[in-house]
Design brief:
The protein has 485 residues and is α+β, with helices and mostly antiparallel strands. The chain folds into three domains: 20-282, no CATH class; 295-427, Mog1/PsbP, alpha/beta/alpha sandwich (Protein Transport Mog1p, Chain A); 433-484, Membrane-bound Lytic Murein Transglycosylase D, Chain A, CATH 3.10.350. Helix content is 41%, strand content 19%. It is built from 19 helices and 16 strands. The protein has helices at residues 20-29, 42-58, 65-80, 113-116, 122-137, 140-143, 150-161, 167-174, 176-179, 184-200, 207-229, 239-242, 248-256, 267-277, 343-350, 405-418, 424-427, 446-453, 459-467, and strands at residues 90-94, 101-104, 108-112, 281-282, 295-298, 303-306, 312-316, 319-323, 329-337, 356-363, 366-374, 380-388, 391-399, 420-421, 433-439, 480-484. The strands form four sheets. A seven-stranded antiparallel beta sheet has the order 7-8-9-13-12-11-10, with helices on both faces. α1 (20-29) runs antiparallel to α7, α5 packs across α11 and α10 packs parallel to α13 (248-256). It is globular.
Length: 485
């Protein structure tokens, strides 16, 4: 058949590798949300926030800003086209190769990077997020009449995310109904709502159907792998299991959502997706650290630091900004070019600051200097500079309104004192494969690409699926295609 023609902003299909982690995780995704008449109920908000906080603390979260910001942009575009555009949603990318997405109470939607790696356009991503928002809008959790406690939900999700749970354990928590999803009717309803949200947001509703096609292609490959390697065929759940490839009812509900003009520019959404996903890890991400509470790692700049309980740091470019939960304390960490000066003289000559109570120190074989400076408004600010490789890492800590100076000093001291370099050897413990985009040359075939890239027995078929050529056809000269290397 060759590559499916992209009409408008979708070249769709999501994917489903079925692993037991995936099955259980998607099952817990079936605990999508019940909402009150006008806003998230206090119970839903509390449950969702607790799950979110523990998920962030205990599981691997994909934090590359370019993709994270892109997923949030698409997700909130879907929310704006939903039945409840004024509700607050949080979209999170899980750093897992499993093909999965799920939602929890209070408007929290999660998607695995493994699922994103199989997509080729923004509308495919939008289709998956719209399906999860559809579960939330339809109040499916409440309609299932399952009285799950917050602790059960948290332990179930974290058990799967951290690898300590399997399908059997998830089944014991939620029962066979949950593991298999909401069932055909509710999954179809989520599709129906999702298709309408897609249309309202400017995406073609046909994205839902293309998603199913991609999932089935991936399922067939997984079955082939199972047969040829002798392992047990995994099962899977929810949307991914309830629809055959040519589902008449699905076609009907999608058609109800409306049709967008065939004249829409496909590149308007394919190109941004390509930019956002270039370099996305494929398979196991050896660059990602094992989940560890209260630790921030920057593998590009090769350093790490810890922070107190309740703090959250956000990194962008070469700057990290952190606050405690009550917003009583703030800390910034800026990575700048170092000079030939000592760290103490760097503060004076480069930063132009007069250092008080200055103290030079060495930690983890790194030289630094710390003390206090007076800000423009007359307040005392903790400052430190640590030399790391060719960088000067500048720490600034401020006590805000309602904060205690002694407590603030403990917080700032913990962050500064925990700063360490990450060795190249530690980062090279495993080699991570990534998705890259190249323009196909004359005469290239997926088989030749797979052999050249040494992708192994199933490499050709994987390249076919992630590029929209599941059964036949070859890339055309000049066409953008995904490779794994």
């Amino acid at each position: 058949m060759g590559r499916k023609k992209i009409t408008s902003n979708l070249n769709g299909r999501t994917s489903q590798v079925v692993r037991r982690t995936l099955t259980a995780l998607l099952a817990i995704g079936a605990l999508a949300v019940s909402v009150s008449a006008h806003a998230w109920s206090k119970k839903d908000a509390r449950i969702g926030k607790e799950i979110y906080d523990q998920t962030i603390a205990e599981s691997a979260i994909y934090e590359e800003p370019r993709l994270v910001e892109y997923v949030n942009k698409v997700g909130h575009r879907i929310v704006a086209g939903s039945d409840r555009p004024d509700e607050e949603y949080v979209f999170t990318v899980i750093d897992s190769p499993d093909i999965n997405a799920f939602a929890t109470p209070g408007g929290y939607v999660y998607i695995n990077r493994g699922l994103i790696s199989y997509m080729t356009s923004e509308a495919q991503l939008a289709a998956v997020l719209a399906h999860e928002v559809g579960h939330i809008t339809a109040k499916h959790a409440a309609r299932q009449n399952r009285a799950n406690t917050t602790s059960n939900i948290v332990s179930g999700i974290l058990g799967v995310l951290t690898g300590s749970g399997d399908v059997a354990e998830a089944s014991s928590l939620w029962g066979q109904t949950v593991v298999r999803g909401y069932g055909r009717d509710m999954e179809l309803e989520a599709d129906q709502l999702g298709a309408r949200f897609l249309f309202n947001s400017g995406y073609p509703p046909s994205a839902m159907i293309e998603v199913i096609s991609l999932l089935k292609d991936n399922e067939n490959l997984e079955k082939r792998k199972a047969r040829e390697t002798g392992r047990k065929v995994q099962s899977y759940h929810g949307l991914f299991a309830t629809h055959p490839r040519n589902d008449k009812r699905l076609l009907e509900v999608v058609a109800e959502a409306g049709k967008l003009s065939e004249g829409l520019d496909a590149d308007a959404n394919v190109t941004p997706f390509r930019i956002a996903t270039n370099g996305l890890p494929w398979g196991t991400n050896f660059r990602a650290p094992p989940p560890r509470k209260n630790r921030v790692k920057d593998e590009k700049l090769k350093f790490q630091f810890d922070h107190p309980d309740g703090w959250q740091f956000i990194g962008k470019d070469k700057t990290y900004t952190g606050n405690d939960a009550d917003q009583h304390y703030r800390m910034t960490i800026d990575v700048q070019a170092r000079t030939r000066d000592t760290p103490r003289m760097y503060i004076k000559n480069k930063l132009g600051e007069t250092l008080k109570k200055a103290e030079d120190f060495t930690q983890a074989k790194l030289n630094g200097s710390r003390g206090y400076v007076t800000t423009a408004d007359g307040k005392q600010q903790r400052i430190a500079v640590i030399y790391h490789s060719r960088y000067a890492v500048v720490f600034r800590g401020d006590v805000l309104e309602g904060g205690d100076a002694k407590q603030g000093e403990e917080h700032f001291g913990k962050v500064i004192g925990s700063f360490r370099a990450i060795s190249t050897r530690a980062l090279a413990a495993g080699k991570t494969k990534t998705i890259s985009y190249v323009k196909a040359k004359e005469g290239v075939t997926f088989r030749k690409l797979s052999q050249f890239l040494k992708l192994g027995q199933f490499g050709e078929q994987e390249l076919r699926i992630i590029n929209g050529y599941p059964s036949r056809g070859e890339p055309k000269p000049g066409e953008w295609i995904k490779i794994i290397r």
